[in-house]
Amino acid sequence: MKSASRISRIAAAVAGAAVLTAALSAQARELSVSTVLSDAFPWGQAAEKWAELVEERTGGELTLRVYPNSQLVAGDQTREFSAMRSGLIDMAVGSTINWSPQVPELNLFSLPFFMPDEAAVDAVTSGASGEMIFEAIESRGVIPLAWGENGFRQLSNSRGPIDEPADLDGLKIRVVGSPLFQDTFTALGADPTQMSWADAKPALTTGAVDGQENPLSVFDVARIDQVGQQYLTLWNYMNDPLVFAVNQQVWETLSEEERTILRETAVEAGEWEIAMTREQESERLAAIQERGVEVTELTEEQHQAFVNATQSVHEKWTPRIGEELVDAAREAIESR
Ligand code: X2X
Predict the structure, then answer these.
(1) Angstrom distance (rounded) from CA 187 to CA 49
(2) Is 9 domain-assigned?
(3) Angstrom distances, CA of residue 55 to CA of 27, 121, 329
(4) Which pLDDT does position 84 carry in this prediction?
(5) Which residue positions does the secretion signal occupy (predicted)?
(6) pLDDT (mean) for 17-40
(7) What is the pLDDT, as a whole number, of residue 1?
(8) Residue of 41, 197, 237 to test ligand 1 pocket, by largest number of atoms within 8 Å of CB
C-alpha cells in the first residue's frame, strides 16, 4: 500500500510537471531578433522597443530576444538575411544595405544622391515603391512588417577635408560588403575596402583604412573621431532604412492575433525610432563638432560634382534593381 501510494504520488508529480511544461511552452514562446548595432544606438533601441511592446501586448506570451552585434551570424552582417530566410534567425531589424546581396531591389536606397532629404525617403518607403520592395523581400521567404531608419550616411576620413571628388583620390575607404558601394567609391577615385562593421573600427585605428561612411548617430555613439577620423563631409549621399521582418515559417506558426500584434508593434517601434533618429541629428552634429571634428558642408556646385561623378553607378545598377521600381521611386520623390 505504502509503496503503491508513493508510486502514484511520484506519477502524479511527474504528470503534473509534464502538464506544467506543456502549458509553459504553449504560453511563452521566445523568438530571436538579430541586429547589427546594440541598444547604445537608435537601431538597437528600435529592436528593444519592439520587444517591449510585443511582451506588453501579448501579456508575455511572445518574447522577442534581441541579439545585437550580428552575433547570430558571427559578425558577418551580409549573411543576416540568408540566416533569417533559412530559419537560423527568427526575426531581424536589418539594414537595406546588408540585405541587398540577397534582395537586389534594396540597392535602390544606395543609389548615390538619389534621395535628397527625409521627405524623399518617406515618399519612397510609404508609396508604391515601398510596396514593391516589401513584395521583393516576401518573394524571398521573409515577411517584412515595418520600416525604421539607420539614417543619411556621411563621409569621414583622417587625411583632410573632402569637398570634391578629387579629394577622395586614392583614399582607402571602408565600405559595407555590398558590391554597389565598391562601384560608388571606385567611381569617385577612392580605394574602397569591403569589411564588416566589427572590423571597421580596428581598421580605422591601425590606419589600414583612411575613412568610412556612416550616419551621424553611428559616428557619434561609436566615437569614430577617437580613431583619427577628424574630417567629416555632410553629403547625404544615401539613406539607409531599416526593415523589421520575420522568417516565413515562423510567421505561419503564429495566430492571426499574434501576427497583428507583431505587425502593429513593429510599425510603432519603427515610427518611434525614425522620429528619434531625425530629432537627434542636430545635437549629434554639435557634439561631434565640439569634440574637434572639422565638418564640411557642400555648396550646390560641389554637390553636383559628386552627382556627376557617380552617374555610372546609376546606369549599371538601375537594371539590377529594376527599371520599374526605380521609376516608381523617382516619381514618388518628385511629387513629395
Ligand atoms: O556596417 C555599417 O556601416 C552599418 C553599421 O551602418 C551597417 O550595418 C549598414
Answers:
(1) 39
(2) no
(3) 12, 30, 35
(4) 98
(5) 1-28
(6) 76
(7) 43
(8) 197
Residue 131's domain is classified under what CATH number? 3.40.190.170
Q: Is the pLDDT of residue 25 over 70?
A: no
Specify the ligand 1 atom closest to the Cα of 37.
Answer: 5
Q: Is residue 195 part of a domain?
A: yes
pLDDT of residue 28: 83
- The best mutation among 214, 219, 240 to test binding of ligand 1, ranked by most ligand atoms within 8 Å of the C-beta, falls on 214
Q: What is the dihedral of CA 120, 123, 125, 127, to 10 degrees?
A: -160
Per-residue pLDDT, 6: 60
Which residue CA neighbors atom 1 of ligand 1 most closely? 197
Kindly report the protein residue whose alpha carbon is nearest to atom 5 of ligand 1. Answer: 197
In a domain, 69, yes or no: yes
Q: What φ, ψ does residue 41 adopt, rounded to 5°?
A: -115, 155
- In this structure, what DSSP letter does residue 146 have? E
Three cell numbers at 299? 555648396
pLDDT of residue 144: 99
Q: What is the pLDDT of residue 167?
A: 98
The C-alpha atoms of residue 141 and residue 152 are separated, in whole angstroms, by 28
Q: Which of 73, 36, 84, 77 is nearest to 196 (CA)?
A: 77
Q: What are the grid coordinates assigned to 18, written together? A: 509534464
Share of the chain above pLDDT 90, in %: 91
Residue 287 has pLDDT above 80, yes or no: yes
Which domain range does residue 135 map to?
Answer: 30-334
* Residue 215 · residue 280 · CB < 8 Å: no
What is the domain count for the chain? 1
Summarize pLDDT for 101-132 with one digit per residue, the tens.
999 999 999 999 999 999 999 999 999 999 99
Residue 4 lies in a domain: no
